[in-house]
Amino acid sequence: MKKVFIIAALLFVVCALGSHPKIVPEVFNNFDFIAEQKTNVMILLKEQVNFDNLRNMNGVHVNSLSWDERGRVVLEAVSRLAKITQAPIIKILEENNISYRSMYVVNAIFADRVPLDVMEKIAERNDVFQIQANHQVDTDLEETEYIENGPSNDIEWNIKIINATYLWDKGFYGQGMVVGNSDTGATWTHPALKHNYRGVKSDGSVDHNYSWYDPAGQICKAPCDQDSHGTHTIGTSVGGVDRKIGIAPQARWIACRSIKSSTNVEAMLGCLQFFLAPHDMNKMNPKPELRPISTGHSYGCRTGSTACRHESWKQAVKALKASGQFVVASAGNAGSRCKTVRGPPGKLDSVFTVGALNKEAHTITTFSSRGPTVEENKRKPDICAGGANVISAVPTGGYGAKSGTSMSCPAVNGAIALLWSALPELKGQVELTQKIIEETARHQTDKQCDDGKTPNNVYGYGTIDVGAAYERAKELLKKN
Span 263-277, mean pLDDT? Predict the structure, then answer.
């Protein structure tokens, strides 16, 4: 056995040192390559869409377009670029009988069992930026601490702490909004979730097209959750009926399974593409007009992977933001040390990153990751919400408590639906909405990881206050 590991290590070193510099060494660090000299990769192209200056055919900037046209313009831009620039590489793959999937949310191709000689041929091309690994990675998910079955009239503490009831009292519950959840899936038949799953039509019939995608498992033809994590998180965003667990209980939801016991970058980015333009169950006929207004991402891509560190994530999130979607992510559970916000999407500037608060004192939890980010040294998180002992839905049909930034992230996802439902003029105005939330948050200071001023690397801007954000937004919109 010792000889096998020594030979494997030597093979990794030889291949990593002797290959083309565009092929990252991580590509060779797996048993498939060691055994067969073939492995799964992501081919990232140099040319990517510049969303900062994206306009329609009449020269109108994408930010000034209607919701439906904005989605169409973004989809057309990314899909057109992918079709044109990927064609020569696809030809090489097809000539070598290599299976592949083209992606457009980021201009990249995922290819299976690619031999080294083909990788090197592709890497020689000037239009290729990098060849990265598409290996399986383990995921660490929060456990359910206990189960509570049965109805309750009590409003859960994590709803109260962000002042969501201020808008409830005004009759706003997220009506007319659709949120997306990228996680372990969802139990769509759960009593707290079935009423507002978009796949359930007004006549009671069910159609999962455009409302569910399973790139991680590729086995569920309807929303499923073999863990419980995803059911719990979407419940916090929009769940409710016999228990008041969701921030926006009348918003509708769609889901994408990006993670299970293990996952890969293709599945995680695949969910971002699905949210950009939901497609049917055959992955055809994308319809950007059906995209959600906000998306929640209660997971992190491991920093040890090059595919977790590079531009592919930034570009994919930029595409969603260009289409008007608000992207929310968890900070991670690597606290209480500083500099523990590690992988994407939570470490990205373009994502609204959420830390977790305790139930009793409403202060930061010990587990909530602190900034600055590991590699970029940027300030994170952006905001905080309740994340300890949060009760929400679980696949059994009952309710359970979990603790983690995975629980605080969906609260903010639901808060966006609640706020935009109350003020439809805000819909799609991501930067303005974020600015309002930051300015009206209940600011909390902590000198653990910087000078403690607001924003800081423990709380960001503090605890989100949906009621205060609503009042500030009303003032600003009235002036304009």
Answer: 94
Locate tokens 């590690």: which residue?
Answer: 342
Mean pLDDT of the chain: 91
For residue 6, name the pLDDT band (cuts at 50, 70, 90).
very low
Write the CA distances from 57 to 54, 64, 69, 77, 163, integer angstroms: 10, 13, 11, 11, 43
Phi, psi values for residue 155, rounded to 5°: -85, 125
What residue type is 313 in one-letter code? W
pLDDT digits (tens, 9 = 90+) for 444-471: 999 999 999 999 999 999 999 999 999 9
The CATH superfamily holding the domain 146-479 is Peptidase S8/S53 domain (3.40.50.200)
Task: Provide the 3-class DSSP secondary structure of residue 17.
Answer: helix
CA separation for the pair 396, 22 (Å, rounded): 47
3 state SS for 384-404: EEECCCEEEECCCCCEEEECC
DSSP 297: E
Q: Using DSSP, state whether 121 is helix, strand or coil.
A: helix
Q: How far apart are CA 320 and CA 127, in angstroms?
A: 24
**Cβ atoms within 10 A of the Cβ of 434, count?**
16
- Domain assignments of the chain as residue spans, ordered by start: 2-134, 146-479
Question: What are the distances in angstroms from CA 88 to CA 22, 91, 105, 122, 127?
Answer: 18, 5, 19, 9, 10
Nearest alpha carbon to residue 246 among 417, 392, 144, 353: 392
Q: DSSP code of 246?
A: -
